[in-house]
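Q: Start with the shorter request: fold the first protein.
A: Done. Sequence, then structure:
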Amino acid sequence: MKKLLSLILAAIMVCTVLASCSTLAKGDKGAIITMYLAEEIYDYDPAKGFNDLATAKIVSLMFEGLTTLDKDGDWHKGMMEDYEYFKPSEKNDNYRLQISLRDTKWSDGRTVQANDFVYAWKRIMEPTFKCEAAALLYDLVNAREIKMGDATVDDLGVYAVDTYTLEIEFVNNIDVDEFFKKCASLALVPLREDKVNNNEDWAKRASSMVTNGPFDVRKIDYGKQIRLERSAYYYRDTDSNQHLDKYVIPYRLVVRYDYGNGKATTEQQIEKFNDGTIFYLGEIALSARGDYEKKAKIKDSAITTTLYFNLENELFADAKVRKALSLALDREAIADMLVFAKAATGFVPYNVDAAGNKGDFRKTADKKAELLSTDADVAAAKKLLSEAGVSGGSFAITTRSNEVDVAVANAVADAWKALGFNVTVKQPGTELIPAKDNMSAIYDDLYQIAYDEGDFDVILVEYNMLAPNAFSALAPFATKFSGNGVDMYSDNYSVIGHVTGYANDKYDELIEKAYAAKKDSEEMDALHEAEELLLSDMPIIPVVFQQEAYMTSKVLSGVGNTYWGRNFKKTKMDDYMKHKESIQAELAENEAEVVD
């Protein structure tokens, strides 16, 4: 018996030692992993960028919310240590959620506090701050009134009880699981008030950003690279002897762009992956996708590539015209061209929950009837145009400059030209803002500016789900759920609706019904009806459901999947010191930079 006990104790000690072992070579900080992760982005503000897959892929490595989502959209604890959901009394008190936070620090060493969540959440609820994710917080006391300009942001039902305790007050009894899924949205991560308020371009420069996630942005060389480094403060007790890679194994992720001249994935990046210079390929060149279809790892994304109309353009005033333009598209052919995509049969993509996590919303919707034809019907399109009295017209499709979006825009333009329209594809690109006042140069994303200001005829959007539920996808098309607040300069503080200009009282009623539903079945029925109405009115044209495809070098292990991208916290590189030497030489040769 004593012998058995000794063996058990010895095994426990070995496990403990192994669990605390470092992967680092003596005196070294860890592996440097060069990669092509996603197209270049120009603003790292987590409350923006829901029309861009690349932003989610990169920003999700930098920030962490109360919860995180796995690849299936199930929530796990992030910064939340524990929680209690309760009703203080049976009188008039509202339901409350009290959350205790884990002890961690920002990348500059300051403690992440409950107040950082309070600030971030109040920021997106300001009536003048445009953010589609605002509706994620509409269950909070006074949230809707604040966004509509009828209450001040200080009245929002979220409070810092103390440094590590966050309390949230709700207008109704909520589904806690569903709320915690929302809390994983990038829009709801904490932010530092002292950083955000003191610099309007805080999210465009490495020097002005601090992060609470596993990686921090240390250097941005536009057109060349983004350098992410392990945050030494991410849940790590810096006062003890905890090793540097206890929570995050790689030391540095170098996201390369110079091989592709600052643009989206090219054949050059595949060449560098194949010769071992790049170890992770987050996108595969369009021209090479057929060759790598069986080699790549593929998963459904939370992205619907969608065309938004500007309904103030008289050419698109008649829904028959918009429907005709939709009917002219061969979605199957476009999906086949992209390889890693599926023809859209609705707006909400796969891997998005129906109400109360009752199955996949898209699958349940498609069982009733596919809302969109996946094949082109040019004859029907021409008939609708004839009924609308439209025989042509000139307009532009605005798109980002990455090769996938440009390819989709060109395919759409060709289909519409065949109907008699004069269609051009417009790529706004970026504008250099020169360095001044000891601040580095930055770029303004002219595509994002055009989107925000509604300065487009038709714009191609990579619509990224705000949360893994259908309500968050469909709600922003309802006027009071758009997240755009109110026009503070109008005489009557008019509500600003969706960027397309779409407004339908019936649609608004359906979203209100879904929001107020007591039963999951009622919510799901209202959302299915809302999607059907949206695609009948057709202020938008869903084209394809995007899939993510990526390739990982054989020397890497532990690359994890999340709902919005990859997780590199536990990624290991075999014999990393040997690779590090060649990476140093490569970076020194191509960038005149020696990496320590």
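Q: Next, the second protein, separately.
A: Sequence, then structure:
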Amino acid sequence: MRSMILLLALAAAAMAVAPARADDEGQADLDQATEAKLNAKTLTDLDEVIRLTESALKKGLSEGNAQFANGLLSSTLVQRGGIRAALTARTHPTNPRFPEFRQAAIDDLERAVKIDPKQAQAWLFIAQLNHLPGGDPKRGVAALEEALKAAADDPELKARVLFTRATLAEGDEKKLADLNEAVRLAPGDAAIVRTRGLLKANMGKPEEALADLNKAIELDSDDGPTYEAKAIVLARLKRFDEALATLQKLQELQPDSIEPLVQMARVHVAKDDLKAALAQIEEAKRKDPSNVALYLLQATLEEEPARKLAALDEAVKLSPRNVQVLRARAVLRADQEKYDEALADLDKAIEQQPKDMLNYEAKAAVLIKAKRAADAVAVADRMVEIDSSPDVRRFRAGVLAEADRFDEAVETLRRMFEESSEDLISGLALAQLYHQKKKITPAIAAYSAVLGRQGDLLPALRGRGDAYLNIGKHAEAIADYEKALKVNPRDSGVLNNLAWVLCTSPIDKLRDGRRAIKLATDACEITDYKAPHILSTLGAAYAETGDFESAKKWVKKGLELADEKEKEALAKELAHYERNEPVREMLNEEAEAAPEKKPDAKPDAEPKEKSSGDPPAAEQPQT
């Protein structure tokens, strides 16, 4: 509106001047351009404004009229460039015309800022366009800085520039700094406030996130994504009833959408109420009975295999060529030992997407499960023929290991690790493979080689700590767990295993029962007190301090949640506490030995939480 008022004022001033002189031959064109701009409604209209203005400038104008004409040209270029930018944003990057649309917008905007560098909106469009696929990010960054300068006297526009920079920035703290300033400048902008709330939620600041999301709802009470975000944050805080109420409001705003129902189902899952979750999925299916994703979700929630299979069968009927559905049904059929049917599904999936490695991975896994190891290796060989990337080669090594071709698997991973100084994943996979096969000494050597390249790699620190604990090298295990906690203080597995060795080591100087209680409690909180082996560790920690009543309480809680295999170990621990005796981990300095267990030793010499049993290629290090 301000630009339109300015345009009218300039037009009036231009019309009030004396009749055209020789140097004002373009006046007629300028008058037509001014009128055309006031009435412009389409891109074609703007094209005509630009043509007339350029004609006026070419024919010649007085100094004052030339200044007005340049302003008119610049503002029209920004307007046309903005429309073209919006068209570009709505066009998928794979569309053949996408580069054409973007370049046309950039050409307009770059011409505009060349005429008038103070066009903040133009700089902002240039930045956004250059951050789209195929753009020039460096030019985009520079354009944002120019936009900030040009918008210095326009708080709302400056806030939008900061908002854009925040969405493009790397690092949460940088994003937050820009969003904080943007909110200060434009406290009534719901999108900016909402975005800051989402960022705070991802930064682990749920209460601050809720404050922002509630404010965003005050500013725009009909914005569905804000309610959805608020519900997600409330669910993370375990305020499930409030989350469900928020989603109910979202459903009122979007009565034809199934998304609120799906989100409600997820909240019910978090509440351990699968019956209610399935009821929400059924309601969603009534609204959208042909939605394949709903049947897939239902299959993950159903507890009875027959009902799982029925949901997946329906999904296949709805979408018989859907690769994800076929894979899901194949996995379920394999679990039910229906291997031929599972392989038939996977062959169909491969026929649909012959280069999708997930299909081949699933087929190899089913063949291993069916004890057809040679066929599984053949599938892995085929994968390497299609895609010889490191991920695929590592997967093949895992299949070789499952096929009892251990030496070949080791050699593959060893060679990959040695060939590339940056390939930490293969070194980690090698260490895990040794570890899974209980070859602890070479596992420790492989973990150490990886740590020699990156000393703070969490999976390697955790893995080597577990390996040391396997052979009774408790001081070394503690040292690695301590380093791992510095990398991630919230890793429940590291917290648990460090707590375990601190309260069960037979080496008196290593034990610290009170710290073990703190570590185990943290691990229990992270896992919602639902992991039996961590509850067992908390019990052992209390026993180390002499509080056998608390020890019994937590082990009994673990027994309530444990499966049959876990119950046997926990029952033996409980027997210790009934006798007012702490548990002691065995101490074994021989790497591959399996000595007799001491009378008061824990029944299993391995750590309470073991490394993954997946093929080594499955775990990716956090670099």
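Q: Describe the second briefly.
A: The two ends are 51 Å apart (CA to CA). The CA atoms of residues 41 and 192 lie 30 Å apart.
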